[in-house]
Amino acid sequence: MTPPTFFDFYSLLPYIILTVWACILLLVDLYIPKGRKGITAVLAAIGIAVSLGYSITQTGIEARGFTDMISLDGFSTFANVLLLASGLFSIALAYGYTKRMGIERGEYYTLLLFSLTGMMLMAQASDLIIVFLALELLSIPLYVLSAISRKLQSEESGLKYFLLGAFASGFVVYGTALIFGATGSTNLSVIFTQAASVGTSNLLLTIGAALLLVGFGFKVAAVPFHMWTPDVYQGAPTSVTAFMAAGAKIAGFVALFRVFATAFPSIASNLTDILWALSALTMIVGNLIAISQTNIKRMLAYSAIAHAGYVLMAFVPYGNETVSATAVAAGLFYLAAYALSNFGSWAVVIALEKSEGRGLGIDDYAGLAKKYPALALCMTVFMLSLIGFPPTLGMVGKFYLFRSAIAGGFTGLALIGVITSLISAYYYLRVVVNMYMKEGDPDVEREPWLGLTTSVTAIATVVVSFVPQFLFLLAYTAVLR
Amino acid sequence: MVPIEYYIILSVILFSIGVAGVVFRRNPLVIFMSIELMLNAANLAFVAFSSVLKSFEGQIFVFFVIAVAAAEVAVGLALIVEIFKSKRTIDVDQLNSMKE
Q1: Across the interface, which of A152, A157, A234 has its CB nearest the CB of B86?
Q2: Residue B91 forms contact with A (CB below 8 Å)
């Protein structure tokens, strides 16, 4: 056993900064008077920004730390930057919202930072022990955050998320145990060499990998493991929901890809069909149920499920070496595009939300365009991006995804993707129709950070769609090879 | 020495009982106990594999699982108590304030 070196710690630098900052913040928060917890929010945002800065300086550096338990590479750096940016957006959304809803507490931001560290660790883990720890570090603060407003719906959402999340981690742990039994190690690269030698017929290994997939399927809300999503997303405070929808999804997918691409390419032939079915089911069920929703939070929850299906599409050809790099780059690109439209649309939802859950019906958006044309325009951009309609980032992302699915020989899956996107236009456009063509008198909270988030994400969604190559190139260079 | 298969079969049985408990029971406390059973089934498998493979990694994992399970208990029980305070029941079938 060698003692850790400087490079071991360097590979975890953004993570260490954030953890230490969160611990200090927990103490500092004690001296910040009640009602001025906005200071805590700003301090937390500074911590994330510092960590983001260091994370960006790690671009292009590859290292392995702590006897190969942690890896730092382009993939983890891309994910870290994406996650830290999501963290910044989450704090911007929470700043005014928590005050308005009377749930402004210092713990909110500390818990958010801890959850964010878990998400980042998911991207860097190269050992199943770390994957499990990161998964729990991500989840446990999120359970508390969902229940933080202490209203019945919020508590209910917290309990449901907790029970299903713990259930999912049971699958992850048992899957890991079987994989350990089959290969004698929990290290991803050792598993890879062992798995290649035991072949595709090893039952323990295949069942273990499938159980891991079930566990992660719960985390990223893939059908049929999605039952918790609508209730949890609806009941949790909206600022938490936005964080959960983007952050937990990115982290889940990043870990899923890291584990499957590093450890299990040899049993891809066993898993491709399962992934195909998961992806197709998720797209179909998510989009179909979303049609009948009248509550915007519930609708966006089903939309989040559907989008998990689109990203899963990038995983289907993971065993095929010629296309997997492009496919995963498309997946990363789509996650970035989804995160932007996601935060934008949740910001608009927060702007219209009133206390006691009023202002959340899709009918409440009637007349928004007349009274607040800029906000309605932004919401239209996000809805179009979620459909995949030009000129938005969502359209480019879907184009890359479908292209890579076809290149991998999964034309049927791409076709399902196109058809479900068309179906999704119905319920996304209903919001737009309500805003522009119906009479109503909506009331909007004007908060500077909320407005900033809305406009930044809307502008980025449109502008980047004209120069998507640079983002795709970033994602492509980030992919593990 | 007891063959490894016995341990694995026992752990599969325990895991299945745990999954069945989560799916069929309606009391969050019982569901939670079932989840613990799933985790401990995995622990059993880890220790059994670990002794056969002469590797310590499995045993280390068990300690992590135990520690994390303890953290989960702390959060989970707090949530259940909070729900009971505001609703006076913890039956998961009655936690349906968000059904349309």
Answers
A1: A152
A2: no
pLDDT tens per residue across span A75-120 = 999 999 999 999 999 999 999 999 988 888 889 999 999 999 999 9
**Cβ of residue A156 closer than 8 Å to a chain B Cβ:** yes
Interchain proximity B45–A174, CB inside 8 Å: yes
Query: Tens of pLDDT along A365-408?
Result: 999 999 999 999 999 999 999 999 888 999 999 999 999 999 98
Q: Is residue A158 part of a domain?
A: no
Residue A410 lies in a domain: yes
Burial annotation A418-452 (CB, 10 A radius, 16+ → b, else e): eebbebbbebbebbbebbbeeeeebebeebebbbe
CB proximity B15 to A under 8 Å: yes
C-alpha R_g of chain B: 17
B26-89 placed in CATH 1.10.287.3510: yes
Residue A453 contacts B, CB cutoff 8 Å: no
Residues of B in contact with A144 (CB under 8 A): 75
3-state secondary structure of A390: coil
Domain of residue A402, residue span: 267-481
* C-alpha distance from B22 to closest chain A C-alpha (Å): 8
Asked whether the predicted pLDDT for residue A479 surpasses 90, the reply is no
CB A347 within 8 A of CB A457: yes
Specify if A45 maps to a domain. no
Please indicate, yes or no, if residue A326 is contained in any of the structural domains. Answer: yes
When divided into structural domains, chain A yields a total of 1
What token pair was written down for A205? 């290994």
